[in-house]
């Protein structure tokens, strides 16, 4: 993972290094204070690493993600999710290898408990989550769990929201391919996905997880070292202003409570 970290002095760099070295599941690969750049290898969710960096006292933004040397090019995507009642989130996809796709996300505003997570066949948000179609299912399978042989390609199981409505998740899936889901949608369901093991008629169709609470369209994103911009060409907003806006630290700007899709 590549982060932009606002380090203004050697003390900042030392604080960032100390924060990362104290985390057992994060390996610091590169720290470049002058370029305000940090490169890490980790099994933690991107939002957890960003929070770890910011606990050092420096603002941080994820700029890119990459896999191993065998990872196919163009295998990164992102979806910004939204829904009624303030449900928001960001889900990133990274093709780690031809047979492994990483799904990394953060959600806020959810009812506490489990919620189904699925890729849907359409990227049509004209009637929010109701117009996204069924689960992405190119092989004509019945609904199942992520580990099942027979399942929809878009069946990603459940995520869990804590008592404050926040969910952080990191999933590795063997069925998804990033290039197959560009332009489709990600939907977080109202209820728990029964993974096709329930007695309800919809169990083998949707996991009986209910309607969508939040959804977003999957778009291509930057990989490692593919996102050098510091100022958005469309509105002139800097990287740090965008970060502050998403966290509600600019006066008069509401907090989004989830990271902005800078990828």
UniProtKB/TrEMBL annotation:
GO BP of this protein: superoxide metabolic process
Keyword Magnesium: no
Plastid listed as a keyword: no
Keywords linked to the UniProt accession: Copper, Disulfide bond, Metal-binding, Zinc
Record SUPFAM superfamilies: Cu,Zn superoxide dismutase-like, HMA, heavy metal-associated domain
Annotated source species: Lamprotornis superbus
PROSITE patterns in the record: HMA_2 (PS50846)
Cofactor: Cu(2+); Zn(2+)
Name of the protein described by the UniProt record: Superoxide dismutase copper chaperone
Any GO molecular function: copper ion binding
Protein family (similarity comment): In the C-terminal section; belongs to the Cu-Zn superoxide dismutase family.
Stretches assigned to the HMA domain: 1-61
